[in-house]
């Protein structure tokens, strides 16, 4: 097992921190700790000098259009994230983070902005905000069912170099082709808040396995999560009647 603490970079929570996605860091650290593995969280703020390129895993949360534009500007200038992706470090981008990591996104005021181009995905505003519970099925590394909460105006079309994270069972997702999220190599993006890793521990463990480069021993789901998933399934069944 790895002796050095696993270094998790939380990118720009002061810009892309509107939807509580920083909880994903707590989940990753806790799941490592339950297995006796130490971790260190490196928080990169918009006032920080640079993005370290040596971290094991990177997280980018959701936020408003204006904040997304500032995030792209900052991450372009630093290039640390791009270098880390170049050596295969895993990245999780949520909602606004998905759009920032993509090829381009159009904000609500009709302006088109270049993204970082780390994911082959183009975002344009939809006819309305997509808000509510989402359920998908993912073919990625044994992840299976994913659940979360979406709240976004943007609709995202994937290019040929991106795979969807999941097929939409319920909810809007990307808004095209009944798919949700985008995966390019070890860059995983999704519209799911929750935080998504609290609700989907298998996805958390897949990212951690990529980060440390070895398989992790399985953990039993906490009873709260089992109860939440059962409740969501029941309420979904009720809405389908
Ligand atoms: N501003 C983006 C949109 O509305 C992303 C929102 C979010 O991160 N939840 O599409």
UniProtKB/TrEMBL annotation:
Active site (catalytic residues): 95 (nucleophile), 193
Per its record, the protein catalyses: L-glutamine + H2O = L-glutamate + NH4(+); beta-D-GlcNAc-(1->4)-Mur2Ac(oyl-L-Ala-gamma-D-Glu-L-Lys-D-Ala-D-Ala)-di-trans,octa-cis-undecaprenyl diphosphate + L-glutamine + ATP + H2O = beta-D-GlcNAc-(1->4)-Mur2Ac(oyl-L-Ala-D-isoglutaminyl-L-Lys-D-Ala-D-Ala)-di-trans,octa-cis-undecaprenyl diphosphate + L-glutamate + ADP + phosphate + H(+)
Q: Which Pfam families match?
A: GATase_3
Q: Which residues form the CobB/CobQ-like glutamine amidotransferase domain?
A: 7-200
- What HAMAP family does the record tag this protein with? Lipid_II_synth_GatD
Task: Tell me its family.
Answer: Belongs to the CobB/CobQ family. GatD subfamily.
Provide the function of this protein: The lipid II isoglutaminyl synthase complex catalyzes the formation of alpha-D-isoglutamine in the cell wall lipid II stem peptide. The GatD subunit catalyzes the hydrolysis of glutamine to glutamate and ammonia. The resulting ammonia molecule is channeled to the active site of MurT.
What is the recorded name of this protein? Lipid II isoglutaminyl synthase (glutamine-hydrolyzing) subunit GatD
């Amino acid at each position: 097992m790895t002796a050095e603490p696993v270094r998790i970079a939380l990118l720009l929570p002061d810009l892309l921190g509107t939807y509580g996605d920083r909880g994903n860091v707590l989940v990753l650290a806790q799941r490592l700790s339950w297995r006796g593995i130490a971790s260190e969280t490196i928080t990169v703020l918009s006032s920080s000098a640079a993005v370290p390129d040596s971290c094991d895993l990177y997280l980018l949360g959701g936020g408003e259009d204006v904040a997304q534009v500032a995030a792209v500007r900052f991450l372009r200038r630093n290039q640390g994230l791009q270098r880390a992706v170049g050596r295969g470090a895993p990245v999780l981008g949520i909602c606004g983070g998905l759009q920032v990591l993509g090829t381009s996104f159009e904000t609500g005021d009709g302006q088109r902005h270049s993204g970082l181009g780390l994911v082959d995905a183009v975002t344009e505003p939809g006819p309305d905000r997509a808000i509510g519970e989402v359920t998908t099925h993912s073919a990625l590394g044994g992840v299976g069912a994913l659940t979360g909460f979406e709240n976004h105006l943007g609709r995202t079309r994937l290019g040929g170099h991106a795979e969807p994270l999941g097929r939409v069972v319920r909810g809007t997702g990307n808004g095209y082709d009944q798919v949700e999220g985008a995966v390019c190599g070890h860059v995983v993006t999704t519209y799911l808040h929750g935080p998504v890793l609290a609700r989907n521990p298998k996805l958390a463990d897949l990212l951690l396995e990529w980060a440390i480069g070895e398989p992790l021993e399985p953990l039993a789901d906490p009873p709260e999560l089992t109860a939440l998933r059962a409740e969501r399934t029941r309420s979904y069944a009720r809405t389908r009647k």
